[in-house]
Structure formats: C-alpha cells, structure tokens
Design a protein that fits this description.
This protein is of the alpha/beta class. The chain has 14 helices and 11 strands.
Length: 340
C-alpha cells in the first residue's frame, strides 16, 4: 500500500445528510456493537467448544468437507423427511437431527442477547435506521427484528415493512409496499439476505415469517415453532460459492439477492454500510451490490480506523464500480447506529 494514501475517517453527523432516504446494510459488527458475544467465529466452532456434537455429527462435517452448520442441518433434515415419507425407521438419522437442532438452540441461548439487554438502545437504533428507505441485514439474529417492532409502535408517521404479509408469506411484489398507506408518511423496507431465525422453510420450500405482536424471547421462537416439517432459514458459514448456493435454494433469499441488492444504489439513493468487513467469503454480495455503477456515494463504517483495511475496501469497490465515491466514517461517532 502506498504510504502516502490516507483515508479520512469522518464523523457520521458530518456526512449523514448525504444519506437521508438512502440504503443501509448492516453486518455482524452492528450486532457486536450491541452484544459482544456475537463476536464468535462460527456456529460449528461454538458447538465443538461446548461439546455439543455427537461423533456421528462430527463425522458428517468431515465427510462433506465443510464447516457449514446450516448445510449439515439441511442435509440431515432432508434425510429425515425422506425416511418419514417412505416409512423408513432410521434411529441414527433421527438422533443426528435432534442433536443438530438442540445444538443450535443451545448455541443461540449462549451467544444471543435477550430483548431486555438492548431495550434501552432501541430508541437510538430507531432514529438511525428510519432515515433510510431500504435496509438489508446480513445477520440472522433478531436485532433488526426488534428495532422494527419498536419503531412500528412509535406513532410518528414512519412505518417499517419487511414485506411478509398474511400468514407470514413474503410478497413478490415487494416494491409496491414502498407506497405509504393510511396514516403513513414514510416507509422503510427491510430484508434479511442471510435469512433470520424468525423465518422458517418447510419441506415444500415454502417460507414464512413468524408474525408476533409482542417482543418474544428468541428461544421461544426457535424451540416452540421449530417442528419436524420446517427449519429456520439462515445462511451461516461457508465460502462465497457455498453461501450463494444456499441463497439460490431459497425463493426469498434469491429475491433479495437478485432484486433488492441491485436497487440499493441508485441515482437518488446513496448507500451506508455499517459493521460489514466485505471479506472474500462475501465477494458474491459485493459484486452484486456494486454492479450498477451509478454516480453515487457509499459510506463505510470503520471501527479501528485501519488504513490498510480502508485501502483494501476502497480498491475493491473501485475495481467494480469506478463511478462510486467511497468514504469512511467512525463507527462509534455520534448519531450512527447505537451511538447517541
């Protein structure tokens, strides 16, 4: 890196006006800012550290040469469904499925905050997020879910919509939901590119989101709603290629990838990225987001103000979209995310 290159790390409030009515992407750093236990490397690693896997499950990760928890869960679930439909009694498959299911529930209980842990920060999170017209979360936790629920109880004319409608089914005509109705003055659409623990898929690949009017404990959602005929929809680990394969297997995730991501940067909408390092394993997302080379701006949060990291990200984006202006801001500066 050229030592003379120096990227200014700005304060959020000094640049925020350029991003009103723009788009927002939140990565794992956003969740870590609220609860440091989200800073775990992988579900598989946490499970192994807590000795949650049986020998059979460990063998599956080895045989399939993967660290992808969600992939192994999905494979075992499919095997269990096939056995059930064919009337095959297979104790080993049933035990493997229950092992993975219970491991995920225990991991979530270990690393995920409860609603009361972040309740005091929800007003600030709401003030920050409601300025955007589109939000895409790359996390499968319930943080954004809770922010949206809080915001929609505030009677100020703003409405969050995740585009899941009657019986929790996603609307393919999601763009139509941007239009304010009734007493709404502004609308923000929100999406989960890597799924969410409140979204389930069934054996026919029909996806639905739990519709709750009350703040609910995460374990209640997983343990009481997770039946043998459906599993949570989430993309956790794996290479970029494997993650893209998981995205393509889901109608909802495919819609977010092929339609929503392409619409994040427009002539009228600049983009803010908070808490996402844009690593090599997520190059598929980076390439998709910056495919439309508009004369727009992107502001990227920096936690440690590392100049080499700023240079890597700046070069990565410029290689894909030369017309986009890239700037950086302090992730802990006033006004952004959970910083008053």
């Amino acid at each position: 890196m050229n030592k003379e290159i120096n990227y200014e790390i700005k304060n959020w409030n000094d640049i925020s006006a350029d991003y009103i009515n723009g788009s927002l992407i939140i990565g794992n750093g956003a969740s870590i800012a609220l609860h440091n236990k989200f800073a775990f490397s992988s579900l598989k690693e946490v499970a192994e550290q807590n000795d949650l896997f049986s020998n059979d499950i460990s063998k599956l990760f080895t045989e399939f040469d993967t660290n992808d928890f969600e992939l192994i869960l999905r494979l075992v679930w499919h095997a269990k469904l096939v056995n059930n439909h064919l009337g095959v009694t297979d104790t080993k498959t049933d035990e493997a499925y229950e092992n993975l299911k219970n491991a995920l529930i225990k991991i979530v209980n270990e690393v995920h905050c409860v609603h009361s842990d972040i309740a005091s920060q929800l007003p600030q999170l709401y003030e920050f997020t409601k300025r955007f017209r589109t939000i895409v979360s790359l996390n499968y936790d319930l943080i954004l879910y809770w922010v949206l629920m809080y915001g929609n109880r505030v009677q100020d004319g703003h409405k969050f919509k995740d585009c899941f409608q009657g019986e929790g089914i996603f609307s393919s005509n999601w763009e139509d939901m941007r239009k304010p109705i009734y007493q709404q003055k502004e609308v923000t659409l929100s999406f989960y590119q890597h799924g969410n623990l409140s979204i389930f898929r069934d054996a026919k690949n029909i996806e639905s989101k739990l519709q709750r009017s009350k703040f609910s404990d995460l374990l209640d959602i997983i343990s009481t709603q997770w039946a043998d005929d459906k599993i949570p929809l989430f993309v956790a680990e794996g290479t970029g290629t494997k993650k893209l394969e998981s995205i393509k297997s889901s109608p909802y995730l495919s819609t977010v990838f092929y339609e929503v991501l392409l619409d994040l940067i427009t002539q009228k909408a600049n983009l803010v990225i908070y808490g996402w390092g844009m690593g090599e394993q997520e190059s598929h997302l980076v390439n998709q987001i910056f495919r439309s080379n508009h004369n727009s701006k992107v502001a990227i949060s920096s936690y440690d103000k590392n100049q080499e990291e700023c240079h890597r990200i700046h070069s990565l984006i410029k290689t894909i979209a030369s017309n986009i202006e890239v700037e950086f801001f302090d992730s802990q500066s006033a006004g952004c995310w959970n910083n008053p």
